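Let us work through a complete example step by step.
Step 1: write down the sequence.
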Amino acid sequence: MRFKLFTLPSCPNCPAIKRFMELTKLAGEHIDASVQAGLDEAMKLGVKSTPTVLFFEDGTIVGRAQTIGEIKEFLGM
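Step 2: predict the structure and record it as tokens.
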């Protein structure tokens, strides 16, 4: 499983989610939605707010979370 984490520099909840995702040891990427490429990727994947974590298996979105609690629930932690 891989993830994409969408954040904004002005987002007050994004740093905690970013740190938490680093602890999960899952492979993934951080996408800054304040730059055009990041915004384009967010729009393509239906991300409307930050922080948002999308979980992928074989290129397909299998989960979406916006809080540490939702991430834990999805990952069975």
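Step 3: interpret the result. The first helix runs from residue 14 to 24.
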